[in-house]
Amino acid sequence: MKPSVSWRASAAAAVATATLLTSGSIAGAAPKADIEAAAAPDIPVANVKAHLTQLQSIATANGGNRAHGRPGYKASLDYVKAKLDAAGYTTAIQQFTSSGRTGYNLIADWPGGDANQVVMAGSHLDSVSSGAGINDNGSGSAAVLETALAVSRAGYQPTKHLRFAWWGAEELGLVGSRYYVNNLSATNRAKISGYLNFDMIGSPNAGYFVYDDDPAIEKTFKDYYAGLGVATEIETEGDGRSDHAPFKSAGVPVGGLFSGASRTKTAAQATKWGGTSGQSFDRCYHSSCDTTSNINDTALNRNSDAVAHAVWELSE
Questions:
Q1: Catalytic option among 146, 170, 171, 218
Q2: How far apart are CA 52 and CA 291, in angstroms?
Q3: Which stretches does DSSP call E strand in 88-203?
Q4: How far is the C-alpha of 143 from the C-alpha of 305, rounded, in Å?
Q5: Phi and psi (nearest 5°) for 217?
Q6: Is 33 exposed, middle or buried (0-12, 13-18, 19+ CB in 10 A)?
Q7: 170 a catalytic residue
Q8: What is the chain's mean pLDDT, rounded?
Q9: Burial class (CB within 10 angstroms; exposed 0-12, middle 13-18, buried 19+) of 311
Q10: Global confidence as pTM
């Protein structure tokens, strides 16, 4: 959900003022440029859902899934890569092997920014073999993709360097992200100032969970939701079970969002967030019914906007 105009304006003004007080204009840019860069754009949920429709079509045309080593996964990666290439990103495909099948990570770098301070946002692109994986994790993949495209549309030039990633074989045990982290030199790992992970952010019976890993990243998300008047809780269901874990183990500050999987929503949570108590956050988790009909538009909208907000705020 788009924040109120008054909240966005006040937040943008506060960030811009802080930027000017602490660092002045960047590389000779006019103060106006700093103000404009401070506020992330609204992410159109229709655009995010259009990506989900494409991922669903890819799964349908390829045996009903987008799993590691299957044609649907590579077609999903090709779809995302084509969008990024057209938007001006420098993309690279990283290849690995798991369970006797070839897997792929997709890394996209936005030109510019301090290469010694890298802000990464990522999500796993693979599904399980039993379904299309539209919430898990088309939702995170589509939101990260649309945020990356919003960076391009805005011509955003942050102080820090932006990098986006889509991981393969997460469902087999974080294989792709672990491969990426393990193949970074110690120097390059140290250049990553933060990794943001988005795995399941459109659950149909949604909750609003924030990772409690790096305090600064956590505060960025919690403050955003406080501005919307939406309460959050600490994420515990997926702790250590998604692609932030290899980064955290390597000493990289991490954070992220989650809307719930197989755990049951309590009565207190239903009062706070709506939805149905006594039912899973996502009753189609890892199932064939995880299709485009398995998405809560409000949660997807709010979380997609939060992805962009964090990318902008943590990279400026």
A1: 170
A2: 9
A3: 90-98, 101-109, 114-124, 160-167, 192-198
A4: 8
A5: -70, -45
A6: middle
A7: yes
A8: 91
A9: buried
A10: 0.89
